[in-house]
Amino acid sequence: MGYYTPGGSMSNTQAGTSGGGLASLNFTSQPNTALLVTSQKAKNSSLLGNMAGKTITATFTVNGTDAFTYYGQPDACNTPASARLYFETSNGGGFDYTHYWWSNPASAVLANGTLSVSATVDPASWSDWNGQSGTSVPAGFAAAASNVTTIGLSFGGGCFFENGVGTANGMGGLVLDSYTAN
Questions:
Q1: What are the average pLDDT values for consecutive 10-residue runs of the chain, which has 182 residues?
Q2: Rounded CA gap, 8 and 3, in Å?
Q3: What pTM was computed for the model?
Q4: Which of 2, 56, 81, 147 could form a disulfide with 165 if both were Cys (CB 3.0 to 4.6 A apart)?
């Protein structure tokens, strides 16, 4: 799980497993919840490695609040707080925008209930760190999709896909019911 700290850096912590799902998290009153991801190949071998052409689907349940906020709200894009599929590849050769990918346009507006997001890992369905479609940077997309090292959900709103969300009253949670790649 990734939370933004007041200084703007990412603080990672292990997600809980309460609620009968694969993982769970509680939202805070600050718009700082940014990621729910895994990089554990031993537990999730079907979710890491070559994902090219696979369809990724996440189903999750949100409960306890309908009043979500996002960091930087309001902004010019005025898109509500939402969840998207996310993956990244290794930064072993140094940082590159094409190491980080978000499903686009596939997303789910955060609200109470059971929600689902699904996208095929093809260039037209994903945007990189710099907002470029995979069709604009096909070599970068192909390299990342063929060597996924971290995968999960991101939380954001407005003009950004991972700027962090929270709830108006600091209540509410999310249970990841399933996350598959076929």
A1: 69 69 89 88 81 97 90 89 96 91 97 97 97 97 96 94 92 93 93
A2: 9
A3: 0.91
A4: 81
